[in-house]
Amino acid sequence: MQYALLGDLHSHYENTKSVLYHIGEIAPNAQIIGLGDLFECKIGKKKAASLTSLIPLKEAVILQEKFCKLLTFPSIIGNQEERIAHVTGEQKFLQYKEQVIIEKATLLHGHQFHWNEKFEPRFPTYETPLLFFGHSHRAAIYIEKIRTKIDYNLPIHVGNGQTYEINVGSVVESRDWCLYDSEQMTVTFFQAPLHK
Ligand SMILES: [Mn+2]
């Protein structure tokens, strides 16, 4: 089965539309799953922590109807959704799961583990050989926890018993997405062209 994984959309309509269009061209039968930070919270971390009353949704989130209509796929929760729920009290932003396990792979948003001062992740151990995540907006693949250069459009074989952590990059900054083929056991990074 094929999975198209995208994360860190941050309410960016044009880029999300472009990535979904590209997925439709490259892997029309893939199951699409979001890796969190679908929405952009306009309230920063510090301000959110010191709030004494709830903020109206309009002031707290970039929320366009045309963007919401693109969100027809399941997603896991990101730090943006958690903060939006915290500052607005809107529980619907907490509807997403913290983690999803698909064939040989765990999916989550990277805010669930520790990041160092260089914004590099320190991975806990997972039960699956593959981990797909977002958060830092930097597409990357780690083989046995060592960061390795990526090439776009070239399938990487991930079925050889090693562990792989895969940062799918971001939609908002670079229209990144990742194709995981669980039969071929390959992962391919893509960058969608802008589709108007
Ligand atoms: Mn994030």
UniProtKB/TrEMBL annotation:
InterPro entries (alphabetical): Calcineurin-like_PHP_lpxH, Metallo-depent_PP-like
Pfam family, one: Metallophos_2
Calcineurin-like phosphoesterase domain residues: 1-175
Family as reported in the entry's similarity comment: Belongs to the metallophosphoesterase superfamily. YfcE family.
Descriptive protein name: Phosphoesterase
Species in which this protein is naturally found: Lysinibacillus odysseyi 34hs-1 = NBRC 100172
